[in-house]
Amino acid sequence: MAHHILGQSRTQTTLFPEALDDFVTEDNPVRVVDVFVEGLDLETLGFERVVAKGKGRPGYHPAILLKLYIYGYLNRIQTSRRLEKESHRNIELMWLLGRLMPDFKTIADFRKDNRKGIKGACRQFVEMCRQMNMFTDSLFAIDGSKFKAVNNKSKNYTPSKVQFHIDRVEKSIQKYLSQMDSKDENEKESSNTVSASKLAWLEQRLIELKALEVEVSEHPDKQVSQTDPDARLMKTHHMERQVCYNVQTAVDTKHHLIAHHDIVMTTDRGQLTLVAKQVQQAMKNKDIIVIADKGYFSRNDIKASHDLGMTVNVPQTDTSGSAKKGIFNKSLFKYDKDKDVYICPAGETLQNRFRSKEKGVEQDVYFNNVACSQCEIRAKCTTSAKNEVRRMRRWIHESIIEDMQKRLDDNPDIPVLRKQTVEHPFGTIKMWMGATHFVTKRLESVGTEMSLSVLAYNLKRMMSIMGTTGLMEAMMA
Q1: Assigned domain for 469 exists
Q2: Which Pfam families does this UniProt record tie to the protein (predicted)?
């Protein structure tokens, strides 16, 4: 033992006890949490019990519990019971909370009762970053990712799944009844023993499934999640189906800070304008550039975003089935903007004949009856009857899509930039959350959890960019 570093005796007393502040270095991230929360106007943000009542048992100030949660999410400690345990043994938390040790019920109730305040604190940090000129490029990548809910896939039911279970139970009941009939005919056969309790359970299960079938058919989304009613069965990145929430984020391409986040229960399509509009409001700037993947491609959505003053870059999806049919794709028909006509692969001109409206989209229809009926390569152009012609449909705002496609063609690195930007925060947050991402149920509670995760992520990013002491100085300036 003489050649090893020796520890201090556990029974050793000191004349002057160490101060708790001595155990927390000046550049410790816990000091950033303390400075950030102390600078917030908690009452304005919507936190409850900021002003204590003059009677009754005193409660904890919301700043104490907010510090506890932010510290927890920064250090992958998300449950109230684990936070309670850490407050009893963690030196950093003892310093941060002033040796207060709230119980798990108080900790859990704070997150449940202060959803508005927690989301406000997350937005306030984004505003603080904006004031520090962290979003000067005004270029944001938007994407969605599926985060697992508490609800297991076995507790989620769709019409086909309910019918599968009903058929399975009915077959089992029929099998048991057949065995009972066989036993009555030949009582000596010991192999056909039937459990009456098992049969009763199956009959009760069938009644439950029939009731569940009605519930599923009456549900707007045609599916029911029994553990977390708000969670939905969705396809994940690897085309697997999981009960999830679809988290939308807009991430700054320069510093990878999350400027806005939201949770939706549908696919990414149709979410572009909703997310981008919130980014405009958060940045107090309409002139922003947005990039997204082809899952967000929607003509009406892109038009709405364009009308709001932003520049949108979304790759166009080719949903045409022409290639499978063995006929010319629409891309082979060239549009002449000056003459407002299409030139077909045979070199003929297709004039603008009339305007129609399909599924809420106004389109101009182009065709040439004479040229098409006499065309030698007509079989490669259309599979319709001889008296019908190939018609080209052009959205009346198609120029917006064409301009967007030209920007994408001129800047082939845009898709790579989007992936490098938006996948980083998702991967980091999911790693922090663990295998089961959310620990709470229902959309409002899950939204609060996500706000805490985003706030912790943005804090971590800012500390990496500016350093802990530099960030604290900027906060107090």
Answers
A1: no
A2: DDE_Tnp_1_6, DUF772
pLDDT tens digits along 197-210: 888 888 899 999 99
CA dihedral 153, 159, 160, 161 (to 10 degrees): 30
DSSP assignments along 401-428, one per residue: HHHHHHHHHH-TTHHHHHHHHHHHHHHH
- Whole-angstrom CA distances from 360 to 297, 357, 363, 395, 396 are 16, 6, 10, 11, 12
Distance CA 428, CA 423 (A): 9
Q: What is the mean pLDDT of residues 353-374?
A: 84
Quote the domain boundaries for residue 389.
Answer: 322-397
Rounded CA separation 359/273 (Å): 19
pLDDT-based confidence at residue 385 (cuts at 50, 70, 90): low
49 and 72 share one domain: yes
Question: Does the residue 276 lie in any domain?
Answer: yes
Do residues 424 and 291 both lie within one domain? yes
* Torsion angles phi and psi, residue 355, rounded to 5: -115, 135
pTM: 0.88
Whether 403 and 369 have beta carbons less than 8 Å apart is answered as no
| pLDDT exceeds 90 at position 39 | yes
Residue 472 half-sphere exposure toward CB, CA atoms < 13 A: 14
Alpha helices in 287-360, H assignment, sequence order: 299-307, 322-325
